[in-house]
Amino acid sequence: MLGLSGLSVIAFVLMQQGKGADMGAAFGSGASGSLFGATGSASVLSRATSVSAILFFAACLGLAIIAKKEDNLGLLSGSAGTQEQVKPGQAAPVKVPAKPAVPN
User: Fold this and answer.
1) Measured between alpha carbons, how far is 17 from 45 in angstroms, rounded to an integer?
2) Rounded to whole angstroms, what are the CA distances from 12 to 15, 55, 62, 96?
3) In degrees rounded to 5, what are phi and psi of residue 51?
4) Residue 94: helix, strand or coil by DSSP?
5) Nearest to 9 by CA among 58, 45, 62, 63
6) pLDDT, tens digit, for every residue of 42-79?
7) Is 8 in contact with 59 (CB distance < 8 Å)?
8) Domain ranges of the chain
9) Neighbours of 44 (CB within 10 A)
C-alpha cells in the first residue's frame, strides 16, 4: 500500500499543470473543450493528489507505530534467536571468529 500510494502521488503531481499554464487556458488554448472542462481537471487531480498523499502519510505513520511496538518487544534488535540477554553488571559475551583454515 505504501508503494502504491507513493507512486500515485508522484503520478498525480506530474500530471498536473503548472500555474503558468492557466494563463494560456484563459485565452482559448482549447482546454475548455477537454473532458473535465476548463478547471475541472485541476480540481479532480488536486483532490486525487490530496487523497493519495493522505493515504501515503497514514501508511507511513502506521508502519512507524508497528515498528515502535516491535522494537519495544525486542524483535528489531537482531535476527530472531541470536540476541543474547545480558544481565546488569555482567560483561557482554564476546564472539571470537573461528580460525581460518590454513592451506597445505
Assistant:
1) 10
2) 5, 13, 23, 54
3) -65, -45
4) coil
5) 45
6) 688 889 999 999 999 999 999 999 988 877 776 655 55
7) no
8) 1-13+45-75
9) 14
